[in-house]
């Protein structure tokens, strides 16, 4: 088995996690977020649709993986955890009215002497349900439960050089997928055909590095749906004169580099032509200013000032910390680039800066993922930072079935 | 706006939901499962990575959609809900340490006079977190909370003719994607290249009907990883003499038809050649027997008897109810085809029969999605039901960049 990181890097991550556990008075951390499970153990499989968990005990060197019986081989194949720390529950616990995996887990934890300790749970993370919380509490009546939401996510914020290298590979894939997707957009071709081209490239990756599934599917709102950032594609054809927003992320070893661009099919509207330079100038101003020591709130202020000159305000956040993740989100949920977020930028923090402007009937998105460096910041991708105008007005014959 | 179903079908679904609410003494149902939100309202967007909800009040004709401000246009664009029933929370509630969307929602529900009623929540569904439960309880101290897990899912189990039609379209896409994926598998080509081909076809769909993202990515375990059903692809090349399991689903209007096959690259192992007829006979026996009035447990008994002749037992379940869904699962979590599941088959129930056999170092999966008919059952897909043997032993020159 080849782990994506040196074993020492995993030990370092466990150490950072235990330090935060100690600060919060948590003895036993129950990790159900698949990204956090992966970060600490290497575990990587599409098994988060059933209950599973990584347990970090403050005075034990190795975490414990607990999951479904048929997934235990996955823990053996993808983690650095010793065999005796891989514990499986029988299949009759899966999607059952009677049995719940958290009953099993509570019993195991009690058996190994953790039933009376201070237990941290990821209260507001995906895949940790209200029922999971109640069954754990019922099964460990003498434990003290604490909210450990984002505890591991905060350890994840500053990336190692190896993590940055994986993000660089993801960036190359993002650039290629954006190129392929934009090439395929033209009036008369269907949205799903462009989504297929993007997906093909995202997964194929490069000859050296294959791609992985992104935590969010490519988003492709078009026409008046550009006012709705999270609509996915349809099988309707693109229309001449319409805008299309393409938001995608390259993914490598579960590390994401998102990238968004806005494409005008045919002549861009006057509004788009007016908005694009406003957004581009704002992005430029933020990227030129970002450096260690500034806060996320400072970055927002720079953007707000930049667009205010043109009479705009933006209510929604401007970006967020990004990296390792699983569906349904590639954001890390720690720092947001918005007013009042006092997170201080440090070298090797990574953000997706996505200053979308959405109105009632249209919108624009141009984004960059950047890394904070020692003295400033740098973009991951190289795709041209501009409003893209596709003046071809119809499909080239047969081109929808060609892969260039 | 064109809804995927007639407005009367949505009314029927609401009616079925309210009947079950009444049976359980639930006045107000808080729906956070994206599939259930879609089923009742039409809402379709990749916005389930933030908290959102559909509220069904037993004595109100229309449900209420509550979500993030920038997603409210999505509710207007994809649902039959009137404008005044679309309620948005401000962006500072998103991924915040201070504000939680459930505080906002509890306040809204209290304001509209629901604060002292019996409230059903989907306790064990994805995206309903432990924190969501606690904040709702805190915000509505005079309400009585009840578990409404699977309430709407049970309404979903028997499909309408229109739903079956969408599943037929998904089946066509599944067949095409399996064909394309299997064609691309050969020694020396990378797993990610085959995954890219499969994804391309899944999303492109047919000329008439574009495909959508499946709720689970294509699974492609190979070699000794065929013992691990939920590993995703890597960028390693396929190896001559290895087995590959391909599990995928076509998706149309969020309706899924899954399909799995096992492929031998080069000569199949003796074990695979022995296992394949055992699994195929078992599937055949189940499909020949399945009809209205039987229980899921009856189907399991037929399978168990069929494989026992050859000395096998299978601990994990044999299949599950399938249809409308969002990541991370296409299963409906209601009926499982396993011992003791007393769900009675009815016409237009739909199941994924996936009798995988997994051992320590290998495994086999051959599956069929079927619909219960008036007198028996029928498969959705037409892909040959067999162990697939690919005897070509190496890559055709350049073929990895061709799309046939």
UniProtKB/TrEMBL annotation, chains A, B:
<dbReference type="Pfam" id="PF01321">
    <property type="entry name" value="Creatinase_N"/>
</dbReference>
<dbReference type="InterPro" id="IPR050659">
    <property type="entry name" value="Peptidase_M24B"/>
</dbReference>
<dbReference type="InterPro" id="IPR000587">
    <property type="entry name" value="Creatinase_N"/>
</dbReference>
<dbReference type="Pfam" id="PF00557">
    <property type="entry name" value="Peptidase_M24"/>
</dbReference>
<dbReference type="InterPro" id="IPR036005">
    <property type="entry name" value="Creatinase/aminopeptidase-like"/>
</dbReference>
<dbReference type="GO" id="GO:0016787">
    <property type="term" value="F:hydrolase activity"/>
</dbReference>
<dbReference type="InterPro" id="IPR029149">
    <property type="entry name" value="Creatin/AminoP/Spt16_N"/>
</dbReference>
<keyword id="KW-0378">Hydrolase</keyword>
<feature type="domain" description="Peptidase M24">
    <location>
        <begin position="165"/>
        <end position="374"/>
    </location>
</feature>
<dbReference type="InterPro" id="IPR000994">
    <property type="entry name" value="Pept_M24"/>
</dbReference>
<protein>
    <submittedName>
        <fullName>Ectoine hydrolase DoeA</fullName>
    </submittedName>
</protein>
<feature type="domain" description="Creatinase N-terminal">
    <location>
        <begin position="13"/>
        <end position="158"/>
    </location>
</feature>
